[in-house]
Amino acid sequence: MIFENATTVSIGPGLPIGAITTFGGDLSNREQLHALESEGWLLCDGSSYSTGDYPELFAAIGHVHGGNESHFNVPDLIGRFLRGTLHQAKGTDPDAKNRLAAAPGGATGNKTGSLQQTATGLPSSLWSLSITGAHHHTCGRLTANMHRAWSGSTHEMARGNQTIATEPAGAHFHTLTGFDTATLPINVALYFVIKCRAPEVPAGILPAGTITAFGGPLPHIPAGWLHCDGKSYACTAYPALSDTILGNFGGDGLKNIHVPDLRGYFLRGTSHLTNRDPDADSRHALHKGGNTGDNIGSVEYYATASPPGITTTAAGAHNHQVASVPVSTHTAAKGATGFTAYNCIAWIDDSGQTNTAGEHLHTITGGDLETRPENIYADFLIAERDIPAAAPPIGTIMPFGGDITDRDVQIKLQAAGWFPCDGSSLRRNIYRDLFNVIGTHFGGAPLTFALPDLRGYFVTGAGKLKVGTIQVISTTGLPVNPIRTTTNGKHTHAIYRVPAERHAIDPAEGWELAAFNAAESATSVDGEHRHAVAGGDRESRPINVNVDYIIRFR
Fold first, then answer.
1. CA angle (527, 530, 531) in 5-degree steps
2. Which of 214, 234, 390, 480 has the most CB atoms in a 10 Å sphere around its CB?
């Protein structure tokens, strides 16, 4: 799909059919779910519907989420995250071409509706291993105790020798283990819903700067919306949007603005000094002139934290070949003296130890191309003006391109019937309509209830998790491409009391001496070990853009 050639056409007022947003109510409650359906919204749980029952929604999203000739699926976002469809953007989704169909008949590759499974890349603060692996081996049939024996015999015996080295061995690699069950950033669980038809009684204002996902191919941009593709626009062309987003995503905010470029990105709630984003201060601008640091519109790359149980597999067990170890015994005359006698090595049927060696270090290799949770592609749109009679149901939570800490923005939002999702406490008797929807899922007291606090968090689909569930510590799952070490650790050991220089003596009764053995013998199998793993980033997260979130209260 080439957006540069798309034309803006009217598809009716307000949020287009096929728009995806989140809802703060508990849709496991059938009564609340039916109430939402009566307002024209369906739960994004992958359900199949007849094309005849929802013709407008089918026309909008088709079979990108799966289906057949008579039925189509809505997106399945339970336990999943949304990610902006890449299209022609570069560098933000390295695995776009390998994306899968979320259900039979669904879209694959770089297309809206496709599914991407979890991945774990190497951290920017690279993992390092402890230096370890020192060990020794035992070697049998060594010799000891010099004895004098006559020369000139017919049997070849072993004479004393200095220390020799084993042949080099022990090269090996380790695989990192101890990963969590899945890679997940810190997140809040909310229900994803999709608009299936226009409401019977349109109501409420959709503020300029509101961001929505769209679940279909989107060949045309709906009236009142702009594609979140990073383009620059003159402030005079879109005054309401310019007044809301300023230069948050790029531009000077006076003559021109950039809309957010969300292609290939995940959305993250701006931390706003909550310290939920440990790298907030190092975030960079999406476009020239855009915000950096702990501000809306800034960008950060993926990161990979070390799971608590990370370690290496046990590896490195090996043996060495040792030449000239004696193999059999012979007797020699006792009491041999004089210049015709040689120092020979007495046989012992015992084992000796090599020296301790083999300490070494590995570096880390492998891993996936990025770190991310399981996600579904969708296009993101931003409202370029205030749209009357277009608001979604009370309790709907939407991304927003304006700064919710800006007092002027707060005043405009509240006048339009929206609050920032900052965890504020509200009185139940004053905001009864919103309380009836979200209750105390996000906290509360006997006379009050709390708004969702999405600052610093990503949003995952509720369903397996209850709405409002918070994961405050990220997890790091096992990568598809195993993370391994380089192959290192090759070494030698010193072997003591190995004989050399053969001499012949008479086989008369006397000391048992070691006959020379020209064959190689093996040491014991030793050297298995692990390495401690250090390093890793301060959290696990996907590449993301900061946005703020707002919730409709009337």
1. 125
2. 214
